[in-house]
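User: quick one
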Amino acid sequence: MKLPEDRKERTKIYVLIGIGAAFVLYATVFGVLRPLMRNRGEKIAAIEELSAKLQASKTKIDQMNKSRGRNIETLSRIILLADEKGYVLKPRLGNYLLSARDFVEKHAGELNLEAEVREVGISQLPQASAGGEPRSLNVYTATVNAECGLHDLIRLLEGIEKGNPYLCVSGMSVAGQSKNPASHAVSFQLQWPVWADLSRLETIKENLRDLRSPRGRAAAKTGEET
Amino acid sequence: MNLRVDLILESEQRSGSAVNVQSIKRIGSVVGPAVALLLAAVLVWKFIRVQHEYRILSDEWDMTEPQREAADTRLKAFQVNAAILQEIEGWEKARIAWHGQINGLIRAVPATVQLDTLRVNQNLQLTANKNVPARAFVMDLRGKAVGGGAEESVRQFEQALENREPFKSAVDSVKVPVYAADPSKDADRNDRIFGITCSYKQKVFE
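Assistant: Done. Structure below.
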């Protein structure tokens, strides 16, 4: 295309071309490039956020793999203490006194002592705040009454306290008897830990079985591969 | 006389220099848009690269997310289990083995002292600093000390409860709240009755 000879006409065409070019430039910058840049900025921020989240996730997955072994160890120990060794008192058809009586009478019987066991009841340990995490264990208290010498009492307490290192003699009264100075009227309270929720032990056993199962191992392995 | 003859019209005149307005205009009209296009292309390329990187990370996140959730659940379960074990084991730390204490008591009682009653009471409380449950035990002893050396015997007994094992490591304070003449009919005038209170250190469930 040839530009007109007339200077004015040519200038007009230059102005028109300039306006057109400015419009195209404006449209390109504000219509295409700026949204593109904004989008890119958002994407970069999202990438940084995703990278941080991915890093945190990988750390967590690593921790899970490491904690699997510790979790198995923890659950096994809970089961050993609470169930196999019976340190957490288990009720018999809802009756704790029968279990407590068996335990005390077994140790008293070894010393040829007669001990009477009476139930006091179940209570809770004091808690920091009403909305706090509930404790897993409650307190079962029973009173033991007997007549024996001080050395027999020591042996009886030794048997009981060594028989269950989690049980506590929470109160005691030993009074001499004028009729029989060698024998004392003895009364002491015993406190056992008991499950606040009786189904908890079963849940713990299930968790352990689950962790030890091939499915549990596979889950951990998948974590390792990521 | 000078005569000037213009052989070409003014509008037909051209500069002899290699750099002139016209050539700059021509070069600019090509280079300017080319640079602008190049810049735009670079920006678009960068955008595409970021977009691609974002997609790769998104896909990775989609794969990792369920594993992270599983890890979260397992870690929480582990923390709960660890807290349960700690709670169980806390019971062992929160008790006093009384057979050892009474055994120690027999060894600590002077020959001129006779114990009549022994009482142990427990108070369940929260520790002041950490709000953790704890047991606070108090042992209350009542007895008689006979003969002229009664006071010395009671002091000796008090000191044994303060300074000798198994009491020293367990007992917080020892007091003698009762010390008086024995009121019983058959008592000698030098015989004394006494009471000793031992407050034990808190045994914390943790």
